[in-house]
Design a protein that fits this description.
Pfam families: DUF6634. By secondary structure, the chain is an alpha/beta fold. It has 11 helices and 12 strands.
Length: 326
């Protein structure tokens, strides 16, 4: 199987997707090589020996054409990480099983990808490219939101029903070793299952229904689970609050894929906080007793991160020593 990726904006998403898919193939015991265009900056790849995964840098269009044309029955899978010009080149298009355009999380990413895909669709006879939403954690709801966003850009077909979450720096670095993080590997398994389905019918316009046949029941549930990390949830909360305060939300599109709450009611719940005498606070006078906002994280000894800011913990309350927050 030959799979090609390119990015509609920043190329980092395409490289991450190529490596994630390659690791999934390697984990399945299927040898794979990632071949990258000469125009792309080389990766700092380490510790791949014995993993069944190889990365080859600096491939020219002539190299890529020879690779694709000579791979009628390759002994290993080929994942191409391509610059946009190579991705669209007639010299290699027809020899690729599935071509994927990665799409970042912003409206400009989506419109750029839609324009690239519209141009790509006219370059027959190869099958048009598919869209993969990237830096979009949240499982099934995020995939549905991505499909809706691409539809607003005029692309109602060929949107993959899986998304690639936002990677932390350590997760991205681990992709260049033989030990990818578990979350990235799960994404790779879901993506691989869907791309196998696409490769069997490359001219199909949708895999939103039949694609689930490519996944086991456990995989179907896992692919739809919201796996956003706590920092990701806070970043998205901040974005939503900014939009609401600016008078731009929530839109019908925001609510279209949201969970529905019936028989709802407002209740007050207790959240962890800290009390004490504060100093060096930007808004509160020295020595004033305070109750902090919700404590998000703390080591229960030297620091606490509340919804608002970090606090340095110095002298605990005398009675019973410092309390512990979970």
């Amino acid at each position: 199987m030959i799979i090609a990726f390119t990015g509609s904006g920043t190329h980092t998403d395409a490289t991450h997707a190529a490596l994630i898919l390659a690791h999934a193939l390697s984990a399945a015991g299927e040898p794979v090589i990632v071949i990258r265009s000469a125009e792309l900056s080389p990766l700092s790849v380490t510790e791949l020996e014995g993993s069944g995964l190889e990365v080859a840098e600096g491939a020219t269009l002539v190299d890529l054409s020879a690779t694709v044309s000579g791979a009628q029955a390759p002994a290993r899978h080929i994942v191409l990480d391509l610059a946009s010009a190579d991705f669209r080149s007639p010299a290699i298009r027809c020899g690729i099983d599935v071509r994927v355009i990665t799409v970042g999380p912003y409206a400009l990413d989506e419109s750029a990808a839609a324009a690239l895909g519209a141009d790509d669709a006219h370059l027959v006879p190869a099958a048009p490219a598919w869209y993969l939403g990237c830096r979009r954690s949240g499982g099934g709801p995020a995939a549905a939101s991505f499909a809706a966003a691409m539809a607003r850009c005029g692309q109602t077909t060929r949107v993959l029903p899986v998304v690639q979450g936002a990677l932390s720096r350590s997760e991205a670095t681990a992709l260049t070793t033989r030990h990818p993080r578990s979350r990235a590997l799960r994404t790779g398994h879901h993506l691989l299952a869907v791309l196998r389905k696409v490769a069997a019918d490359p001219f199909a316009t949708s895999v939103s229904g039949p694609a689930t046949d490519a996944l086991s029941e456990t995989e179907r549930v896992s692919a739809c689970v919201d796996e956003r990390s706590f920092p990701e949830r806070l970043r998205e909360l901040a974005d939503d609050l900014d939009a609401i305060e600016a008078g731009h939300g929530p839109t019908p599109a925001d609510l279209a894929g949201a969970p529905i709450l019936d028989n709802w009611n407002s209740e007050i719940t207790v959240v962890p906080c800290l009390t004490g005498s504060v100093s060096e606070h930007p808004n509160i006078p020295m020595g004033r007793p305070v109750r902090t906002s919700q404590v998000i994280m703390t080591d229960n000894a030297t620091w606490a991160r509340t919804l608002s800011r970090f606090y340095a913990l110095r002298i605990p309350a005398a009675a019973g020593g410092p309390g512990r927050l979970q």
